[in-house]
Amino acid sequence: MLILQPSGLQAQKSSKIEIKHADFLRSDKKIREGARRLVGNVMFWQDSTIMECDSAYFMGEKNWFEAYGKVHLYKKGDSKLDVRSNFLRYNGNTKMAYFRRNVVLRDTQVVMYTDSLDYDIRNDIGYYLDNAQIVDSATTLTSKKGYYYHKKQAIYFKEKVVVNQNKGEYQMYTDALKYDTKSKVTFFYGPTEFYNDSNYMYAEFGYYKTKQNKALFKNNAFYSNPKQSIRADSLFYDRDKEHGIAFSNVVATDTAQNIIVKGNYLEVFKETESFFVTDSALLMSVMQGDTVYLHADTLYANYDTTNTYRIFRAYHHVKIFKSNFQAKTDSLYFSMADSIIRFYGSPILWAEQNQITSSYIEAFVVNEKLERFKLYNGGLIVSMEDSLHFNQIKGTEMTGYLKNNQLSKIDVYKKSETIYFPSDEFGIIGVNKSQSTNISLILKNNKISRIIYRSEYEGAMHPMDELSKSEMKVSNFVWYNDWRPTVPTDVFIWEGNTQPLKEKELRRKGIIDSQEE
Prior knowledge:
Blueprint: E1 18-21, E2 24-27, E3 36-46, E4 49-59, E5 64-75, E6 78-91, E7 96-106, E8 111-120, E9 125-128, E10 132-135, E11 139-143, E12 145-149, E13 154-165, E14 170-180, E15 185-195, E16 200-209, E17 214-224, E18 228-238, E19 243-254, E20 259-269, E21 274-287, E22 290-303, E23 310-322, E24 325-335, E25 340-344, E26 348-351, E27 354-366, E28 369-384, E29 390-403, E30 406-420, E31 423-424, E32 427-428, E33 431-436, E34 439-444, E35 447-453, E36 458-462, H1 503-508
Antiparallel strand pairs: 1-3, 2-3, 3-4, 4-5, 5-6, 6-7, 7-8, 8-9, 8-10, 9-12, 10-11, 11-13, 12-13, 13-14, 14-15, 15-16, 16-17, 17-18, 18-19, 19-20, 20-21, 21-22, 22-23, 23-24, 24-25, 24-26, 25-27, 26-27, 27-28, 28-29, 29-30, 30-33, 30-34, 31-32, 33-36, 34-35
């Protein structure tokens, strides 16, 4: 007997449609076979469902009717659902209502407008297949197809979905979207675009909370405005606070400053036009047609108090690579107001063949070129003469000047010490050691060509075999060549380059891609 019962209907019995009222009722075979003609204030009732209209044809034996005129369907005890149209065909056996022409569905949250709506009374599910518009207090949604779930208070939209928020404040375009009518949260599935006057966003999954003005965009998330763009695995945005967060494989481009920032976590604050990035953070900037790569644990950028000049800060494990300049330091500060890069925490700079160290360094950038640098509280400049011998200039305070990206002059203030190895065509001819208080060194092709002493000095030229190895080096001498970055990806290696990160790991983190090979 169970096998013979219809699947899914064995616990459900169809009730009969009742005629509750009509001003005029007539039965006539000429009208329609087996039909009754009802005219004027017609009302039908089935269980808790009430249906009203101007006129109807009722097929009592078959338990269905067709309604015309001002059709109205609602449920007793349910003030949320209200459907009106110009025509309704209702099947009392399946409890399916087929509304046509000027259909308006209302619940407490939204209003739906369409010309064709099929409604499952038993499960409170409606669907349309030929365009509809849904409106609430601030949002208008249109789509070709849609499914309305009254009990769940949700609407699913499919094909050519368009969302218009606050009369054009922004528009959304997608092919698959869910709208929660109670919470006013929009969920989108598949490629989705967002526009307003100055912003564009794209993602393939996410949600937008219209009450809180908060959104999460995932899967190939992308954001852009006239000044910047951000690409990431996920983007979170708070429109009221104008605060954005990007997660994983982040690439942010500042078109106004010609800067690209990469990392796995980025926060942007529109009000202050500031940001910070961490987790494999990398800043890339073009100078003189050459790209500068800067890595740190955390990178910050903001504007000064006048909101005129950009300020950049990099904290901990900072390394820089440029084809003719490299650096390693604990942290740095750079303001475009004075174009001075300030290096903190025992920095090391490399300019061509020269290694520059100090407890604090200031580098002066003019027209995108490193023009000069200052060393404070004990500085040392070293260059390799050969694999065993190093030219060294040590001083309490020093200023180095560059010309055509090469060190051309060094001024040493207060106490100074120099060790260098003059050479001729046959090789090194000796070692020159001297001490003084104020000197200037003139360099050609990165070699000392002349020393100008501005006060008394002690020193002399010595034969090579006259001095021990230790006497040929100033105190605290260290050659940091293993720490010098030689390719852009070396900025992620803090001490030494004997154990570089694997290329696969760098690609996974989005640090390098095929275009940067």
